[in-house]
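Summary for the steering committee. The consortium agreed at its last meeting that each partner would contribute one worked example illustrating the joint modelling workflow. Our contribution is presented below. We chose a case with several input lines so that the handling of multiple components could be demonstrated. No manual editing was applied between input and output; the record is shown as generated.
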Amino acid sequence: MKVPLSWLKDYVDILLPVTELAERLTLAGLEVSNIQYLGIEGAVLPWDRERIVVGHILAVRPHPNADRLVLADVDYGADQIETVVTGAPNLFPYLGQDVRHLNLKSPFALEGAVLFDGHKDDGSKMVLKGRPVRGIMNRHMLCSEKELGISDDHTGILILDADAPTGAPLADVLGTAVLDIELTPSIARCASIIGVAREVAALTGQRVRYPDYTRLPLEGPPLSGRVVIETEDAHLNPRFCAALIEGIQIGPSPYWMQLRLRLAGMRPINNVVDVSNYVMLEMGQPNHAYWQIRR
Amino acid sequence: MPDSPQSIESLDQLAARALAELEGIFDSETLEQWHTAYLGRKGKVTLSVRRVGELPKEERPAFGQHANRVKQQLESAYEERARFIKAQEMEKSLAEGAVDVTLPGRPVLRGRLHPSTQTLRRILQIWADMGFQVYRSRDVETDEYNFQLLNFPPHHPARDMQDTFYTTQPDVLLRTHTSPGQIHAMREYCPHPIRVVLPGMCYRYEQITARSEIQFHQVEGLAVGYNIRFTDLKGTLTDFAHRMFGAGRKTRFRASYFPFTEPSAEMDVECILCNGRGCRLCKYTGWLEILGCGMVHPVVLQNGGYDPTIYSGYAFGMGVERIAMLCYGIEDIRYFWGNDLRFLEQFSP
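What follows is the complete predicted structure of the assembly.
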């Protein structure tokens, strides 16, 4: 089971260095077989704290000499706004607009930063150097997931959640360690992030912070007649709970959720499937989202 | 030919041609072709003789006798030729494969003990010194002994930890661990105290890789009696580690899970290559996983015939090839059953 430390910290304070935590868990019977690092020390590509930061895209302007390139004005927390040349297709919809109010955030690499080469598949790295692109000097870069080593995706720049703090080191926003824990059949209670958090709390003398379930609004008209549940074998399935959620718009889930799912070994699909998987990983409760068929 | 009238003359002509052809044959393959062509079931001579019916009745006996003589003549010519060719071929092969009797003799290869056997004997020697008897049990087991009596109920997820070779006979399988021997030993010795080690081959239905084989040796240990405690287990196994891997070697016990022990643990020893500093062998952890162990589960004691409210016990199990790999720095478990002399010769007893 893969446990991203950043996710685990939602439920328990972790004051130990990650290697010590792994050792404590291993001795307690939750064998940590591997620790994988993303963007922080220990990773294949640690993200330079000074040179890879959160950028706020203020405007997307046309490139005077190229149709397939655009200019993006980026605020990265410094006094000055920087302009970069990019061919990222996911910026084209904003062409010619002032997008300051949209809070488009993206990883922003400054000259001298070390990144993966987005055009190669052999994992080779490159040092970002300034050079003119079609007559416009370009020193910095908005990054794709591939250039950061998050995934193989190089189809566009990575768009972070709108609340990512401008200018913050990316390592503080996305960087984390992922513990790979080999669970024995005796400790199914640990087969979730909260389950592991309980063990960590017990081992380190901390308290578990459970999610606030009382915030869920559980009022509404009764389901009877609108949802039918048929149980074929009551012995195998003694209890089945369902809730009807209406007015959902299918779309991508927020980036933080997609990243957590990916770090835990799952593939993000859309907001509904992702929430279902997220809650399963978080609480260890199997669940499924069904389409309601309207008759 | 078949159109010319059948006669003694035409038969003689055919025989003469056959004999002439025979003179020109020097290998057994062509000789066989010749035999088939003339004397075979559909050979020319055979077919020719069969046409005896075309002759007037009174000439038939004479022709028949003559035909038999011709056939015998051809057969004996064939046999003689065959002897001649065989002798020639023999001579040729002798000339080609001549033995030089002055060559020095080939040294006899001296056998030695397989690295698994060597490691197994070293382990057993240590346990013998500590007063454990060797107890052997069978390789082919029943599901009952391999799983159920060891507290693996049917469909229990712990069965997934060991992929099993089943036989065509229901509930008969190749043992996946030496632990069924615990039940055999307990049922044999109950109610007396037990101190045994159970060596043997185990079988698992797994992908063969550098780190996993479908067959390997285990040494299992079992002690049952009054007042046997976890501290006895820790002390005994630590003593074993000191005798096996060197006196000052540190050990640690990690909580783990096996269905037939409670509590369960795994014992690590300080890496024998880097002395705990961290290296490739120990994957930079400083520790090597050596064995699994624990206090015998009350259910298992009961299945062995012992009352768990009176008796207690501990058990442990280790992989012989795994320990050999660590001791000798062998990087691939497939070498053990690869029968490669270049590998086996490196382990002098």
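Residues 271-283 of chain A form the longest helix (13 residues). The helical segments of chain A are 5-8, 18-27, 145-148, 170-173, 193-204, 255-263, 271-283.
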